[in-house]
Amino acid sequence: MAQDTARTPPPSPGPELEQLLIDAEADDAKVQQQTVLLQRPWLLLLGLVLVALNLRPALSSMAPLLSQVSESLGLNGSQAGLLTTLPVLCLGLFAPLAPILARRFGAERVILGILLMLAAGIALRSSAGSVGVFAGSLVAGASIGIIGVLLPGIVKRDFPKQAGALTGVYTMALCLGAALAAGASVPLSQHFGQSWEVGLGFWLVPALIAALFWLPQARHGHGAHRVAYRVRGLWRDPLAWQVTLYMGLQSSLAYIVFGWLPSILIGRGLTPTQAGLVLSGSVIVQLISSLSAPWLATRGKDQRLAIVVVMLLTLGGLFGCLYAPLDGLWGWAVVLGLGQGGAFALALTLIVLRSKDSHVAANLSSMAQGVGYTLASMGPFAVGLVHDLTDGWAAVGWIFAVLGVAAIGFGLKAGRALQVQVTSEKV
């Protein structure tokens, strides 16, 4: 008798198997999304440039308008000094949050969210009177501090062979943003009826544009930072502290320039518009050295000579702007820009070069910028205090000298061709 050869259908997959298939499909889709991004590195580079453009306008737009803001809100010299110090202090205080947020949500998503927070802080600063100007400055400084910590890790992770050059590119973009805000804030204010609120508030627009262009990274970024790594020994490593102190000391001079150079020049006889243009021109010159200094410094055996050169240029430019005759002011502004652009770019480059991988770079970036910017905030505050005590600007030169010499000393240590001795392990 012939047997019935009809086949019974295979059993339907159980819920466990179905979930495995769903997870596999999701992983495949995620890999495809990541592959698309990796095949278009220009998209990530464009996003990095646009994000970097927004890391200084909230700071450099205040200085040319500081006298107008102070007069409008009735701020004294110490309060105006606090207004220039508060955002820089927040850069340092909030920087340690960056690795924590990145592990929880992914660096790309964190940057998107913080860009929106930056825009909100700028809006608050320009629309809520004296309380809003301080609260908005706090929010803007905190936002910039978090984003600034995450960028070096992304560069180290996604462009490991071009880390020095790419650091120069986004530092150049950062300087361009600072220059645009320094030069355009007063004309914007004047165009809209001497409204300092418009001069400060306009800079939320590029933050929103950057968020729009960063959206693909936030949606499809591979989120390498979401894997938790513990880096041990960083806070006990002498080289890490040398990088941190160089970062903080040169940044202190930079934020003195952002916060007080226009006021110093107005005190020497320039109009607010002229003073803002000098600051803007000096920062534009930083584009040259911020791009070239890291590239040149990575061609030698170490970065010590480059650090000495850029710091001497910085000190020369500062003393020239403070003491030299005004007919040579633009020359000193150029010297200052060449020095400070190179000094900051080298500080960021040292974070990358002194780290063995992206996880160490993210943690060293957090330490260097967290402690460094907290230290840097003391510079603008000290300038305001000395100005109030002496009723002039001449004594400020001593602050320049102390900070500059100390930066050279720690820079010579940080510029050696070494790496921080730490352990990095997955948790």
UniProtKB/TrEMBL annotation:
<feature type="transmembrane region" description="Helical">
    <location>
        <begin position="332"/>
        <end position="353"/>
    </location>
</feature>
<feature type="transmembrane region" description="Helical">
    <location>
        <begin position="273"/>
        <end position="293"/>
    </location>
</feature>
<feature type="transmembrane region" description="Helical">
    <location>
        <begin position="305"/>
        <end position="326"/>
    </location>
</feature>
<feature type="transmembrane region" description="Helical">
    <location>
        <begin position="167"/>
        <end position="188"/>
    </location>
</feature>
<feature type="transmembrane region" description="Helical">
    <location>
        <begin position="110"/>
        <end position="128"/>
    </location>
</feature>
<dbReference type="InterPro" id="IPR004747">
    <property type="entry name" value="CynX-like"/>
</dbReference>
<dbReference type="InterPro" id="IPR052524">
    <property type="entry name" value="MFS_Cyanate_Porter"/>
</dbReference>
<feature type="transmembrane region" description="Helical">
    <location>
        <begin position="239"/>
        <end position="261"/>
    </location>
</feature>
<feature type="transmembrane region" description="Helical">
    <location>
        <begin position="200"/>
        <end position="218"/>
    </location>
</feature>
<protein>
    <submittedName>
        <fullName>MFS transporter</fullName>
    </submittedName>
</protein>
<feature type="transmembrane region" description="Helical">
    <location>
        <begin position="392"/>
        <end position="412"/>
    </location>
</feature>
<feature type="transmembrane region" description="Helical">
    <location>
        <begin position="79"/>
        <end position="98"/>
    </location>
</feature>
<feature type="transmembrane region" description="Helical">
    <location>
        <begin position="360"/>
        <end position="386"/>
    </location>
</feature>
<keyword id="KW-0472">Membrane</keyword>
<keyword id="KW-1133">Transmembrane helix</keyword>
<dbReference type="InterPro" id="IPR011701">
    <property type="entry name" value="MFS"/>
</dbReference>
<dbReference type="InterPro" id="IPR036259">
    <property type="entry name" value="MFS_trans_sf"/>
</dbReference>
<feature type="transmembrane region" description="Helical">
    <location>
        <begin position="42"/>
        <end position="59"/>
    </location>
</feature>
<feature type="transmembrane region" description="Helical">
    <location>
        <begin position="134"/>
        <end position="155"/>
    </location>
</feature>
<dbReference type="Pfam" id="PF07690">
    <property type="entry name" value="MFS_1"/>
</dbReference>
<keyword id="KW-0812">Transmembrane</keyword>
